[in-house]
Write a structure and sequence with these properties.
Elements: H1 10-22, H2 29-42, H3 44-51, H4 57-67, H5 72-79, H6 83-98, H7 105-116
Helix pairs in contact: 1-5, 2-3, 2-4, 3-4, 3-7, 4-5, 5-6, 6-7
């Protein structure tokens, strides 16, 4: 049986995402997949929770980037949206998940952190 290919380690994934963001670029499909696999392996409860929510691809990407503590401006760049649009999307997503209005972006960060545990 062939050995599975080793997954890139955490700092390599984060460093690559930071490089892309700093260069104003977006990740390729393979890079998004590497991020997803890494976060799934490192924070299985978070990914299970996210997958139960029926998220769009961009919502999942937004959450995965948040899970590795990317800054808001970097996340916005990687998703190809403005920081204000990112903020609005985070609040809408959390409101939908919680079933009640959310007005603080810190609520989103706290929710991601609670799901990582």
């Amino acid at each position: 049986m062939p050995m599975p290919e080793p997954q890139p380690i955490f700092h390599e994934i984060v460093q690559r995402m930071e490089q892309l963001a700093d260069g104003g670029q977006q990740p390729a499909a393979e890079e998004w997949e590497q991020l997803h696999v890494f976060v799934r392996d490192r924070y299985p409860h978070l990914v299970q929770t996210l997958e139960k929510q029926g998220l769009t691809r961009s919502e999942m990407q937004m959450c995965l980037l948040s899970a590795i503590d990317m800054r808001q401006k970097q996340v916005a760049t990687l998703l190809g949206i403005s920081p204000q649009n990112l903020r609005n999307q985070r609040l809408r997503l959390l409101s939908r998940i919680k079933g009640q209005p959310c007005v603080s972006i810190s609520d989103f960060a706290a929710w991601i952190e609670s799901c990582r545990s």
